[in-house]
Automatic annotation (TrEMBL):
<dbReference type="InterPro" id="IPR012341">
    <property type="entry name" value="6hp_glycosidase-like_sf"/>
</dbReference>
<keyword id="KW-0732">Signal</keyword>
<feature type="region of interest" description="Disordered">
    <location>
        <begin position="715"/>
        <end position="735"/>
    </location>
</feature>
<feature type="signal peptide">
    <location>
        <begin position="1"/>
        <end position="25"/>
    </location>
</feature>
<dbReference type="InterPro" id="IPR008928">
    <property type="entry name" value="6-hairpin_glycosidase_sf"/>
</dbReference>
<protein>
    <recommendedName>
        <fullName>Mannosylglycerate hydrolase MGH1-like glycoside hydrolase domain-containing protein</fullName>
    </recommendedName>
</protein>
<feature type="domain" description="Mannosylglycerate hydrolase MGH1-like glycoside hydrolase">
    <location>
        <begin position="442"/>
        <end position="602"/>
    </location>
</feature>
<dbReference type="InterPro" id="IPR054491">
    <property type="entry name" value="MGH1-like_GH"/>
</dbReference>
<dbReference type="Pfam" id="PF22422">
    <property type="entry name" value="MGH1-like_GH"/>
</dbReference>
Length: 735
């Protein structure tokens, strides 16, 4: 039985605490869900409740958006408090603190003589959001919810003819449209005042602000009210039934919701740095919060969460295959093979059946549109196919799931053939078709060093998977493609005159501007000499590139440097984490650790526990276009820790684990629990002891082979050994 299913069963058997709100401490212990408290949440703090079918989020000063994917129910949701004498107090003026956990968040409001607690959450697969209100103090205080109705699909789809009315039986405002296919209901059993429909010749626009006013009823020593936002976008859904289910749901969280974030399901990394530990755990939370289900499209990883741009376009709460692959890589490394396989299957589900090309972008409303025919976003990025093959190979190797590979082999071969279709016969490197693009969307190059390096990885991955499928001829052909590409990369992209790497070529034949991503790709491909690699790493340590919060995408001395531009001088979490990982893999642990630790404060900057997409290049503040919850920033931060700092590599097919720790010099110990090696669970505890390194292994399964690569270890101590069941301990002298 998969770990996730087993955990759900156990939780269902033992039950959950029955408190009105989960007991979530700031630093949760083993088995508890983590929580994050914000003492000043009024401004520039993005808060969100992430559900499988619903979502509520936003900045408190702007009001929240409420969605039941793919339907936007409302925007601009805020609270007001009405005194007995009729005085109205804006919620934002008395908002005191917020507590965020994986299942939702609580906002606390404290005014003269009263305290209101507002819990916003989702439940299972219900297409709606629930708000629970608890009022203490003033016995006459009433709570007014204000919002702007939407009843519209996510960009670029749309619905017309919306209207609303008061539904007395549901104690709510019912939004509907003539086809009766789409509907929304905002309701509360405690509601006794509300906006009235306006049929006047002026001021009757559907999207004008509405309110629902509640008179909380007694609940113990306080007064309580419940508000629900229910959506309907599919046959079989009905807003009244959804609203009733949300209202009837127990106060305690559902076992099926809790188990998604149970740390027993995930690798657990503990270091001497409490802030790093918290950022790592929340990176894992962010990965699971990005798992979203769409009734028409299926379930997959969304690229992030942030306020809408334009009309009904929450960033980036729709599907990008490239972002999903970055997330899948982290899922594989942390051992969440179930989610990884689901995401890989989701990506293959929408492969172009004619060309084998993999897709780039799916809006949540794509199921209501001719998405591939009428919009240019689906099959536009050639790099997705090249990135997919190495991630798939890593999944098969780490999980041992060769059955997945066999089941999808025809699609894998179609992906491989698509990659081959872009290869230039002259040098064996890929070219970007004129109507397509690769990773560099800003410059639109004909070919890119990063894409060519990805081709090398893709060919190597294909060789590995071909051997698993018993096809040595294909494996040899793929290895030949890989070797030819490695030799060609240097010839095409190395500028020996100026001692630099060329990022690619424009359509007019001119060389593209150099940037750190291309330089690192040259190192990763093996095209750079050791001296050239060292020069690149030294350059990235200069003040032109390095800030106290990460690496600039362009050096400050570049002619086109702009610290506020999206990609010409800003600091990316993804790029900084990837650079740190590569530094660790190149044997530069001090530089890697110093860069990686610069990313830890990102988790506390805006959306608690989440990392922004991109920062300004001149100060530690989000770049103006940045998304507050960017999935790949969290994923890359986690990957850098696992693959770089810990040096963990899992080969379930060979029952082998590589552990090559390179922690910061100030750290004297670290531990990793729940490492999955095939059907084994392994715990590792490492520490420095004088001039020696000590490793304790607790193997909860059959014997396996451990390759402990300890930096500075005496050569007389072989790194590889068989690890028996139970506990083992080794010590090696170090220089």
């Amino acid at each position: 039985m998969p770990k996730r299913s087993l955990a759900v069963l156990l939780l269902a058997m033992i039950g959950l605490p029955g408190s009105a709100m989960p007991a979530l401490a700031g630093e949760a212990g083993a088995g508890e869900l983590p929580a994050w408290t914000v003492q000043q949440p009024r401004h520039d703090r993005y808060l969100a409740a992430h559900g499988l079918r619903a979502f509520a989020g936003g900045y408190s000063e702007d009001g929240l958006e409420v969605w039941s994917f793919p339907l936007q129910i409302a925007s601009g949701y805020t609270l007001e408090f009405v005194r007995g004498d009729g005085r109205v107090i804006r919620g934002i003026d008395v908002l005191d603190s917020a507590r965020v956990d994986p299942l939702g968040f609580v906002r606390d409001y404290r005014g003269e003589g009263f305290h209101v607690s507002e819990r916003i959450e989702t439940r299972g697969m219900l297409p709606g959001v629930r708000v629970r209100l608890r009022v203490e103090g003033d016995p006459k205080l009433r709570v007014r919810a204000r919002f702007e109705p939407s009843l519209n699909l996510m960009w670029p789809a749309g619905i017309g003819g919306q209207e609303f009315g008061w539904d007395a039986s549901a104690h709510g405002l019912l939004f509907k449209e003539p086809s009766r296919h789409f509907a929304a209901l905002v309701a509360s059993p405690e509601a006794d005042a509300h906006s009235e429909p306006n049929n006047d010749r002026r001021g009757s626009t559907f999207g004008r602000p509405l309110f629902l006013e509640m008179d909380p009823t007694a609940c113990g020593d306080a007064r309580c009210a419940t508000l629900v936002f229910a959506g309907q976008s599919e046959t079989g859904e009905e807003v009244h039934a959804t609203a009733s289910a949300l209202l009837a749901a127990p106060d305690a969280p559902l076992a099926s919701d809790v188990v998604r974030f149970d740390d027993a399901l995930h690798m657990r990394i503990t270091t001497p740095d409490a802030d790093a530990n918290r950022a790592l755990r929340w990176a894992q939370v962010a990965l699971e919060q990005a798992w979203s289900c769409n009734a028409r499209l299926g379930c997959g990883v969304v690229a992030g969460y942030g306020p809408s741009h334009g009309a009904r376009r929450p960033q980036y709460a729709w599907y990008f295959a490239g972002d999903g692959l970055v997330a899948t890589r982290a899922l594989v490394q942390e051992g969440d093979f179930e989610r990884a396989s689901e995401e890989l299957a989701f990506i293959l589900r929408y492969q172009d059946p004619d060309s084998g090309m993999l897709w780039h972008e799916l809006s949540q409303s794509a199921g209501f549109l001719h998405w591939t025919r009428d919009y240019p976003f689906m099959y536009v990025h050639v790099d997705i196919a090249f990135d997919f093959l190495p991630v798939l190979a890593a999944y098969v190797r780490a999980s041992g799931d060769e059955a997945f590979l066999r089941r999808h082999w025809p699609q894998v071969m179609a992906t491989w053939r698509y990659c081959l279709s872009t290869i230039d016969a002259g040098d064996g490197l890929p070219r970007v078709p004129a109507d397509k693009m690769s990773a560099n969307e800003q410059d639109r190059l004909t070919d890119e060093l990063t894409l060519s390096a990805s081709w090398l990885e893709a060919a190597d991955a294909m060789a590995s998977m071909a051997r698993s499928m018993g096809d040595p001829r294909l494996a040899h052909a793929a290895e030949a493609d890989r070797d030819r590409a490695r030799a060609s990369i240097r010839k095409r992209y190395r500028d020996d005159v100026h001692q630099r790497w060329i990022s690619g070529f424009r359509h007019d034949g001119k060389a593209g501007e150099p940037f750190s991503g291309a330089d690192l790709a040259a190192i990763g491909s093996g095209a750079a000499t050791p001296a050239e690699a060292a020069a690149t790493f030294d350059r990235l340590a200069s003040s032109d590139y390095l800030t106290t919060w990460g690496l600039r995408s362009k050096p400050s001395n570049a002619p086109d440097y702009d610290p506020q531009a999206y990609s010409r001088g800003s600091v990316w979490g993804l790029g900084s984490a990837a650079a740190a990982e590569q530094m660790w893999r190149a044997g530069r642990p001090r530089q890697a650790a110093a860069l990686w630790l610069r990313l830890v404060p990102w988790a506390a900057q805006d959306a608690p526990g989440h990392m922004h997409e991109v920062q300004s290049g001149e100060s530690f503040e989000p770049q103006r276009e940045s998304v507050p919850e960017q999935t790949w920033s969290s994923a890359a931060f986690l990957s850098a820790a696992i693959r770089g700092m810990l040096g963990l590599q899992i080969d379930a097919l060979s029952h082998r684990l590589v552990f090559a720790p390179q922690p910061p010099l100030a750290w004297q110990s670290l531990s990793v629990q729940g490492v999955r090696v095939g059907d084994r669970l392994v715990d590792l505890a490492w520490r420095r002891k004088g001039t020696a390194a000590v490793l304790e292994v607790d193997n909860h399964g059959a014997p396996f082979e451990l390759d402990w690569r300890q930096a500075g270890a005496d050569a007389a101590h072989p790194p590889t050994r068989m690890i028996p069941s139970g506990r083992s301990r080794w010590q090696v002298p170090t220089r």
